[in-house]
Write a structure and sequence with these properties.
By secondary structure, the protein is α/β, with parallel strands linked by helices. The protein is built from seven helices and eleven strands. It has a six-stranded parallel β-sheet, sandwiched between helices. The protein has a five-stranded mixed β-sheet with strand order 7-8-6-9-10, covered by helices on one side.
Length: 244
């Protein structure tokens, strides 16, 4: 299986090592220096590539997706901060009949964690004495806040706890309404990423936590997703990889 990397920062380098560790080849790497014009993503440059893995920037990701799709190649996208353009991307995927998979977090552990949280939220919905909140912290260089992972986890809670209908992702300067789910974020130091969900009542508190130790877990998940996506057509997330 041949992988093309789009974006060659810290995550791109981790993905390269994870792919080679699983016996995959990485014959093409596109970064800021060579992803332009005829040197960039073309049908010729992607010849022989099975799946592209994209970890670039929010400003470049849509253009990269469109370029890969026009070449008829499948793509796994790890870049975040573009989800307001999700419908546009779905149209690109449909029009070009490619396989597309995205996730705010490719860690196998965090995706399993998200499903555990969703199930817990469904259970808690029966017991109105329990409130819920999401807290996350990341390194100070992370671009988006809250993290895409935190928002995905929060969406899963809303699906399970029907009495929660709104995500409050900004600092609350007043009383939080019963239907709001607060997502709190902190940015400091070189923290890789921690996500916590708390179900709290007057009697007790239940806390579920996922802590990333390094980037290797994210990279491995992206490679596993690429292996899963090979030969498929359609629009997918990591939930499909975990559950199917």
């Amino acid at each position: 299986m041949n992988i093309a990397l789009i974006g060659y920062g810290k995550m791109g380098k981790e993905v390269e090592q994870a792919a080679k560790g699983r016996g995959l080849k990485v014959p093409k790497i596109f970064d800021v220096n060579n992803n332009t014009g005829s040197l960039g993503i073309t049908a010729e440059s992607l010849k022989g590539i099975d799946v592209c893995i994209e970890f670039s920037t929010p400003g470049a990701v849509i253009e990269n997706i469109a370029a890969v799709a026009s070449c008829g190649k499948n793509i796994v996208v790890g870049t975040t901060g573009w989800y307001d353009k999700l419908e546009r991307v779905k149209k690109i995927v449909k029009d070009n009949k490619i396989g597309f998979l995205y996730a705010p977090n490719f860690s196998l552990g965090v995706n399993i964690f998200a499903q555990i949280v969703s199930h817990a939220a469904h259970l808690m919905d029966r017991y109105t004495q329990y409130d819920a909140a999401v807290m996350e912290r990341h390194h100070r260089a992370k671009v988006d806040s809250p993290s895409g992972t935190a928002l995905t986890i929060a969406s899963g809670i809303l699906q399970g706890m029907k009495r929660k209908t709104e995500i409050l992702s900004e600092t609350s300067h007043g009383q939080i309404k019963p239907h709001q789910l607060h997502v709190a974020s902190s940015r400091f130091g070189s923290v890789t990423g921690t996500h916590a969900v708390v179900f709290d009542s007057e009697a007790d508190s239940i806390e579920l936590i996922h802590t990333a130790r390094n980037r290797s877990g994210f990279a491995l998940g992206a490679v596993v997703a690429a292996e899963w996506l090979k030969g498929k057509k359609g629009f997918y997330t990591m939930r499909d990889v975990i559950t199917l």
